[in-house]
Model the fold of this input.
Amino acid sequence: MADPKGFLNHGREVAKSRPVDVRLKDWNEVYVPGSLLPIIGKQAGRCMDCGIPFCHNGCPLGNLIPEWNDYAYREDWTAASERLHATNNFPEFTGRLCPAPCEAACVLGINQPPVTIKNVEVSIIDKAWETGDVAPQAPERLSGKTVAVIGSGPAGLAAAQQLTRAGHTVAVYERADRIGGLLRYGIPEFKMEKRHINRRIEQMRAEGTRFRTGIEIGIDLKATDLRKRYDAVVIAAGSTTARDLPVPGRELTGVYQAMEYLPLSNKVQEGDYVTAPISAEGKHVVVIGGGDTGADCVGTAHRQGAASVTQLEIMPRPGDERNAVAQPWPTFPMLYKVTSAHEEGGERVYSVNTTHFEGDEDGNVQWLHLVEVEFVEGKLTQKPGTERRIPAQLVTLAMGFTGPDRQNGLIDQFALGLDERGNIARDADFQTNVPGVFVAGDAGRGQSLIVWAIAEGRSAARGVDRFLTGVSELPAPIRPTDRPLMV
Done:
């Protein structure tokens, strides 16, 4: 235990954000660089090293949180980095992007603000990169086996790195022009600068992983041909079929899926465009969907100079504090969350449903019509007399995803079985009904968190390694059937 009285002597402090008027002028990460290190020792010292650390339960990766908290408190950054990487391939991703279910499960959080686990994590990994503690780990010998990984999001990258380090020759196929999946084109630069992805890719290249961009399996290369080339295949293509909104006016110009809108601003930061082909500049923007993707749209619209930004959510406003009966500790509670994007302005409207869009004579969206809703006997019901319209010259749909892509032919060409939710079915080793073809991440689990994606990639890698060699020493932190602890 680092500091036996740490949680008594020190309150919770989190990373400082740059002033709103400053950060809206650029696309850099919102946090003040270097602001964490001076306070992180005391914050890590708040960890109680409890007898049964439920933060392990909250995180599917099995992160050794009390251990690296102790090392961070003692400023033993090399040991902290080793403990961090023992369970997580990419802590700089999770430390920036994960909603931290570990903190919701922190024992200290029962009656105090929990330990800033996420901030400690990102401090350790940033320090590790700075000091050179992150180095390529090339295998001592090659197995002679080859593996193709379809998709380069967190699940695909984790599986690829694990299998490369186990001695297999791994090639990652990505249909986009750059590696990273949603990390690259779905996450705005202000949430995670892409230099963090780039240096991990270089590490993986040095270890021996090969990358093939601009190739969509099922279209550019038939799935059956890929299977013939490799001894095993890992499908980590994500859950990319966006939930749509089939209401009158959906066809109007200016109504887009979030993943049609967000990647373009990232491409501007990559130098592909001078300005985004779809821009919020000078427009009244409406974001439909109250989750993280919706917040990403809000922050992006602010930086593009939107005239106004309104975010709509069909569900009621969540509470500010955990409901001990409905969402008891250590479950992950649904709370009212103010992200950095919400700090920057805009309006959030809850318990409303979009009825239709209204356009001008040229077919451009101009208005969004909505109605207030409520739950009556468990059924969503419109409230009479609450219909109104709001200006909307750009609308983004951020309502989640329903399953893997069915249009590119990958599922049909492999003849893969699906589960009752439309995801790719797999057995206890993450293997599909096709021998040698495995699935990891959202393609098999459904839309989930980045920590679950990395855990899936690591676990699927063990299944592949055992399939190829008959035995595996790779870790498998989760089973395909594992789910977050819910009430």
Notes: The chain has a mean pLDDT of 96. The CA atoms of residues 78 and 133 lie 6 Å apart. The first strand starts at residue 146 and ends at 150. The longest helix spans residues 450-469.
